[in-house]
TrEMBL record:
It comes from Corynebacterium humireducens NBRC 106098 = DSM 45392. This is Uncharacterized protein. It comes from the Bacteria.
Length: 94
């Protein structure tokens, strides 16, 4: 089953993509807070990951996708990045 991405989650997912592959189409460099948040997710143990995810669910889902290879992992984020760049994934296409 292919996961879905909501328009509200685009930025978070594409910022996580940038963290792992800054040259990927659609990847967006996060601001200072978001960058530190992604770093916190990257370093967190499971307890703190769950705590962070309760407040920042889109970042938590994207990080789990990459770190645990869930739902296509980094490759799925890259696919979404390409679709966002091509204009085939967005509010009218989700």
């Amino acid at each position: 089953m292919t996961p879905t991405i909501t328009p509200r989650d685009h930025d978070a997912y594409m910022q996580v993509l940038w963290y792992f592959d800054p040259t990927a189409p659609g990847a967006r460099q996060p601001g200072s807070f978001s960058h530190h948040l992604i770093q916190a997710f990257a370093r967190a143990d499971i307890t703190n990951t769950l705590l962070l995810s309760s407040v920042y669910p889109a970042y938590g889902t994207a990080m789990r996708m990459v770190q645990e290879g869930l739902n296509g992992g980094l490759d799925q984020l890259k696919t979404w990045g390409q679709q966002i760049t091509a204009g085939t994934l967005g509010p009218d296409h989700d």
